[in-house]
UniProtKB/TrEMBL annotation:
Residues 10-71 form the Bacteriophage CI repressor N-terminal domain. Pfam families: Phage_CI_C, Phage_CI_repr. Residues 86-177 form the Bacteriophage CI repressor C-terminal domain. It comes from Silvania confinis. One of its GO terms (molecular function) is DNA binding. Gene3D superfamilies: lambda repressor-like DNA-binding domains (1.10.260.40), Umud Fragment, subunit A (2.10.109.10). Signal peptide: none annotated. This is Helix-turn-helix domain-containing protein. It comes from the Bacteria. One of its GO terms (biological process) is protein complex oligomerization. InterPro entries: Lambda_DNA-bd_dom_sf, Phage_CI_C, Phage_CI_N.
Length: 187
């Protein structure tokens, strides 16, 4: 599938999946301007972020939304998993609601999974106690943040984000929330 085109047909399928009769109704639902919709439609830009959102909200198959193949049908509840969802705001996790997500979008092995939303990204998190290099939700002095963590010799770690990095003992911070997947939303 070529994701650099196919926007017109995908947008038409979105209108149908939501049960709207106009693209304007779709704009209102998605919270986007008519000009944003018109640009994607006229330039045939594939709306991947809208397609994923529609699938999550309606249960309509990703295959049908992206390609038009298959049938417009609801995902069965056995194919969905409901996870707690939190917003990360000023170092705190604020429980906003539960979200249902297709199992096919998740890694197979997750331990007590949940979702953390930060700006335009949603992170699929698994409770993990075996520290490996990667992206983690950590707590430093009770403040949560998303950071890259790397194991070093002598039970030490290196913690990084885009601006800062530091080294400390692995026991100096709380590290038990491994990020297993990221869903990015474009604006």
């Amino acid at each position: 599938m070529d994701f650099n085109s196919g926007g017109k047909k995908a947008i038409e399928r979105l209108v149908e999946a939501y049960g709207f009769s106009t693209r304007q109704a779709l704009c209102d639902h998605l919270g986007v301007s008519k000009s944003t919709m018109a640009t994607r439609y006229m330039r045939d830009i594939f709306p991947a972020d809208w397609v994923i959102r529609c699938s999550l909200e309606t249960g309509v198959s990703l295959e049908w939304l992206t390609s038009g193949k298959g049938v417009l049908n609801q995902i069965s509840t056995t194919e969905l998993i409901t996870l707690d969802s939190f917003d990360l705001h000023d170092g705190e996790l604020i429980n906003i609601q539960q979200r249902s997500i297709s199992r096919e979008l998740l890694p197979e092995i997750l331990n007590q999974p949940y979702i953390v939303n930060d700006n335009y990204e949603s992170y699929i998190i698994s409770k993990e106690y075996n520290l490996v290099d990667g992206l983690w939700l950590i707590s430093i002095d009770g403040q949560f943040s998303l950071r890259s963590v790397y194991k070093l010799p002598n039970n030490r770690i290196r913690v990084e984000n885009e601006k800062y990095s530091f080294e400390c003992g692995a026991a100096d911070i709380e590290i038990n929330n491994h990020i297993k997947g990221i869903i990015k939303r474009r604006v």
